[in-house]
Design a protein that fits this description.
single chain, 16 helices, about 65% helix
Length: about 375
């Protein structure tokens, strides 16, 4: 598999967003401030993204190859989780196949060269380590994910406040994330914070956000300037509800990412790779209701594949502006699909909780009665 992926990486070369990545890395290598607000070279990603810059001195496509290898590593880690949860060979093939043979991965990583799989693997590590009660290492993984793309910050609240405030987690996040920005502030000045207060807040609704559908000709209300605040408010409300009803951290994280995906103003297809491995992880933790989630995962994948295929002809008028209305329609259906997904997650939470309570009632004196139970 690795030789095939590398060959295709080289065959398709540098296209789409990867060309922009190269501009950012080249700006750094020639001594420019990558965060200085210019039209062409201003980096919109966190600082750790820039560590790939020296690799293009070897070959311009080396970072792209690494992104693809990390995608394969994600599939390997999912297989490891299958073994930990005693899944059959058929189940292992299905779940690993959702990562390895999913056309969406091939389109986004081998063809378009997005690096969101790096963030997805780090977030998966973070949740996995948290469940293993390795909270500090979990916080480090989430902080590193944040330094690649701001999606990592969506895990900060769950791992900090899950059940009780974890000061070790808070300190780890501050030291790593805050430390990197503090050091780079003395290198690149206040421009290091440009993407927080400029680029992200000022962008109009694009991709498949529900806000794009709201802004469309049917409703015609432009809420773009309030988007970041509405999305943040919804995330906080959802998180507080999850804390109130003691929702598992894995389920809380998935719901948070789904909310972010459907409401944030720049909802692109590749963002699914932030939380798709987490949904597979949830499937592995389930037993009886897993078929519901399995079917929906396949439907979800097919839906995203279709969206990715029509991405170019609906892309900001670069080919045919007459097709832009499709983005508005898809934004609405994406919202409906995501809400259904959240309802399924809530149902699964209630099922797992009822099973746990039932086991406790049947074995009230046996503290180890839940060990080894797959619920």
């Amino acid at each position: 598999m690795i030789p095939i992926v590398i060959y295709l990486d080289l065959y398709f070369g540098a296209i789409h967003d990867y060309l922009t990545y190269l501009h950012y890395w080249q700006a750094l290598l020639i001594g420019q401030n990558p965060y200085y607000p210019t039209y062409y070279y201003t980096c919109v990603y966190p600082p750790l993204f820039l560590i790939f810059a020296p690799l293009i001195l070897i070959t311009a496509l080396l970072p792209k190859i690494i992104f693809s290898l990390i995608w394969l590593l994600t599939a390997h880690f999912i297989d490891k989780l299958c073994l930990e949860h005693n899944k059959s060979m058929k189940e292992r093939f299905f779940y690993v196949g959702l990562i390895l043979f999913n056309p969406l991965y091939w389109i986004c990583h081998v063809f378009y060269s997005f690096f969101d799989c790096v963030v997805g693997l780090l977030l998966l590590f973070s949740i996995y380590l948290f469940k293993k009660k390795e909270t500090v290492r979990s916080a480090i993984s989430a902080a590193v994910a944040f330094l690649f793309k701001y999606a990592g910050a969506l895990l900060f609240l769950p791992i900090i406040f899950f059940r009780k405030i974890n000061w070790k987690v808070i300190l780890s996040i501050i030291i790593i994330s805050g430390g990197v920005y503090f050091i780079l502030y003395f290198v690149w000045g206040e421009y290091i914070f440009y993407q927080f207060f400029g680029h992200t807040v000022e962008r109009s609704s694009q991709g498949y956000s529900i806000f794009r559908a709201i802004r469309g000709p049917v409703i015609g209300i432009n809420l773009d300037k309030y988007n970041i605040y509405i999305t943040a408010g919804l995330l906080i409300i959802v998180f507080l509800i999850c804390i109130r009803y003691k929702v598992d951290i894995l389920e809380t994280s998935i719901i948070s990412f789904l909310i972010f995906w459907t409401f944030f103003e720049v909802a692109h297809t590749q963002f699914i790779f932030w939380f798709f491995p987490l949904i597979v992880y949830l499937c592995l933790e389930l037993k009886k209701p897993s078929k519901i989630l399995n079917y929906y995962l396949v439907i979800f994948s097919l839906y995203f594949i279709i969206m990715q295929i029509i991405y170019i002809p609906t892309g900001f008028g670069t080919i045919d502006p007459n097709f832009l209305f499709l983005r508005n329609i898809i934004g609405f259906f994406n919202f409906v699909l995501t809400i259904i997904f959240i309802i399924i997650i809530i149902y699964i939470h209630k099922y797992r909780k009822s099973i746990t309570n039932s086991l406790k009632q049947n074995s009230p004196t046996d503290k180890n009665s839940l060990n080894g139970q797959e619920i």
